[in-house]
Amino acid sequence: MEQYKLFIDGEFVNAASGKTFETIDPGTEAPIATVAQAGKADAERAIAAARKAFDSGDWSGLSPVSRMAKIQDFADQIAQQGLRLAETESMESGRIISYAKYAPLLTIVLLRNLCLLAATKFPWEEEIPVSGNVFAPGREYIRREPVGVCVGIIPWNLPLEIAFWKIAPALIMGNTIVLKPASYTPLTALIAAEAAKAAGIPNGVINVIPGPGGELGKILCTHPDVDKIAFTGSTAVGREIMRLASDTVKKVTLELGGKAANIILDDADMELAVEGAVFGTFFHQGQLCESGTRVLISSKIHDEFLDKMKKRAESLRIGYQMDPTSHMGPLVSKTQLATVERYVKLGEEEGAELITGGKRVEVKGINGGYYYAPTIFANVNNKMRIAQEEIFGPVVCIIKYDSDEEAVAIANDSIYGLGGGVFSSNTARAERIARGVRTGTMWINNYHVFADFCPFGGYKQSGVGREFGLESLREYTQVKRIHVSSMADAKSNMSFQLMSDYKKVDGFSYNCPTNVVAGHGALASISKAVVDLGCRRALILTDSGVNKAGLAQLVKNGLADFCVGIYDNIASDPDLETVDAATAVARELKADCIVSVGGGSVIDTAKGVCVTLKNGGKANDHLNMLVLTEPQTPHIAIPTTAGTGSEVTNIAVLTSKGAGRKLFIVDTRIMPNVAILDPRFTMSLPKDLTVTTAMDAMTHAIEAMTSTMANQICDGMALHAIRLINENLPLVVADGKNEKARLNLQIAATMAGWAFTIAQVGLAHGMAHTIGTLHHVPHGVACGIVLPKVMRYNVDHATDKLAQVAQALGITTAGMTEHDAALAAADAVEALMKKVGHPMRLREVGVPEENLAICAFHAIADTAVLFNGRPVGDPNEVLQIYTQAY
Amino acid sequence: MPYYNYPRQADKKGVKAIPIIKLEPGVSQAIRASLDDKGIQQPIRIDLNFSGCCDTLLCLHADTILEADLTLELDGLTFVINPDTYQLVGEVIISHVDEMGRKGFVLTSSKPVGEWDGFGVSDIKI
User: Fold this and answer.
1) Which pTM value belongs to this model?
2) Closest by alpha carbon to B44, among B93, B82, B77, B6?
3) ipTM score of the complex?
4) pLDDT digit string (tens) for A183-194?
5) What is the per-residue pLDDT across A588-618, written as a single tens digit (0 to 9) for each?
6) Considering only CA atoms, which of A839, A853, A699 is closest in space to residue A774?
7) Which end of chain A is less enclosed by CB atoms within 10 A, N or C?
8) Who among A157, A184, A391 is closest to B50 (CB)?
9) How many angstroms separate the CA of residue A348 from the nearest CA in chain B?
10) How far is A185 from chain B (nearest CA, A)?
């Protein structure tokens, strides 16, 4: 009789205890071989070998392509052992030879398919283009790395194949493995070990230790050097393995029991359904976890189906597994035979009707063997134990149902969810049912189909994790995320600042790609801009006031044939519904370019439309920060005010009714592609709007300078914007037709926009947003009123910057202390406001005094406040400022 | 000290003497507690339990006595087992564990039903 030894650390060795056991041919009850019986010491030795092999990097450190070459050699050695493997598989497990002969081929193909997948398509490293954390810029990527030492514990029903369901993904992904085959069927795993050795798989990478699960299970599942356990077997044992593994928090994948429902619909092809049900239940003597051992049959065809299935079952040839004419072989053991008999008796006790089978079979010419007849129970209630518990033998329960819904309910009335089937001539109907059944695999008009790239595993108590495909490869890796900070400076790290008194952010990234075309008649550039953007169908977005003033028509004329329409239903303070409505029009007109003509509300709406048009869905789906990875629908902005700066900024402010406040889209990719600053578009802007929008720009510029994110480039933009506003606003107020002054104000607004889009704003904007939302005070008005008060509030935290602002506002600061110069800047802003007739107090614009306190609480939560030069934490301080401005 | 059942004459008509069940210390109290918890007072059947995919284990479940059963009354509890099952498994030893998240009954037998004999813990099924 052949003798097999344990395979540990590249060698075939006896068990430390010297113990052996016999494997039995279930078809004859004759012994096949003696096998060394592993015990605790052998398990520890195998784990140590696997640990050492993994840690050495000889296998785990190979590239996937290099590992693929070795795996191919392994597959070739399996092929060399093919005949021996097929015969041994058949003899030890009772698998009919006409099925077992495929086992080596399936193993070879699995190895080759998965190693190629791992080497060519598996995402070992993935860049994350957008991290989702706007405060910590950097390169983000993930690596998938091997888990480490894996333990594979496998059952006796398909010993060779299931061994490789564990060995293949474990090795291919760079792990090492200790495999414990079932004690009934250890031989094919040990022959595979011979193949591994012949292929030159490094010592310790594969170890095979047959032995009793009760003894080895505990050490394999609790050893600290084991990183992962992959188990196929019963739910009861799997549950215990999971419990044991939890002590050291090991990764666990479990493929457990099943009680699959094979649903035969009333429109099924009868012959196909009968064959499918017979194959689904009785193949491999029913000893497959996913077997369809509950056949749910429509009451409309029940009697005809049952009659045909009975005849077909009785026609199956039960014989010795090595006989190529056998359809079914023996059960694997005497115990399994007894279990099946016990359940059959139970079925009769429970009141099910035995239609056929229910008895042992004697095979002619064979003395002994564990043969059992295919058995059919009818009139089964799904609550019976024979319908709920897995029998793992050739026993099927026929359950009648009346409707599709009832069939699905019966199918789901099980603690298991591993496999299932639907037979129907209506694919749509079958798929609807398949989707309703809570199980890991559903076969339609077929059964027992496995495929290397198709995941297999359970819902509910049928298991955790998946075999096959990319999913199985992932199970044998773990994910490491690596962040490489873009700022290698403590003073540029916003997170570190939380524990520091230094609140400024010194480093910065300046990215403002908008193409600005400015000057008298700049509108003439628009058709070239459209062409350069690769567009042909431009939709003009505007508001009714601008449209009535004839400005939209000017743009339409400039666009000529490129214009597909004008949409002017955009009010100030646009909300998400406004964006959705405009997007619907753009979709209908198949616009490929958006031209916004208006103030900040129109331009921000257009930004929202560009994102929603590009990415689909609704505006509410896109209220995110820094998540876009592609260019959006092209946008040309033509401001008709000189204040918002929105024509160059990375922010769109939109009101959300659901949130009850303004929310934002923030992204470099929403900056308009082109901004056209043509003074004709602001010539008709009324005086009060000219003044308030200019103060909005002034607030942008000053807050950008005092922000914690302030930087030299933005300071330069801001200071010149302040100069331009200070010099030109009085000129425009005096003569609204002063085109040069109008243009200078537009340029100032754009420069202030560049400044704040990078350097951010501060408390003045937080306060302005609040009274804008709660009391509908126009944004520019609100900014102007609170700005000087906030400048004084910030004076000790931005003294040098405010002193520069004073100079830009024309104050001669020679002889002043820096502090005095900073305060003079606030005075100069107030003086300018008085000069041009800007409202000076909140009471003038209808803000009730009794609401100031609640405004302070809201303002302090505004995002803009995060970047204020002086930290803002006390709402009482904000209330004081509101009171001063009142 | 473990409890033993010695072969004895049947006390009731039709009740056959059962060979051996061994209860480890603490088991009968644990069984009583489990039954009280479930609000039932029924005989305990020792049976084969196939919880799927290849492994047969022994289990306990509350059940009624059937005609052919072998029965045992022990420490105020009634145990039953199907004679075919007994023939297969031999003497059954029942122990109870309650340690580190592992609580329940462990069943082993003189003729193990499978290689996972004694590995799992289970409660009394209803």
Assistant:
1) 0.87
2) B77
3) 0.82
4) 999 999 999 999
5) 999 999 999 999 999 999 999 999 999 999 9
6) A853
7) N
8) A391
9) 13
10) 12
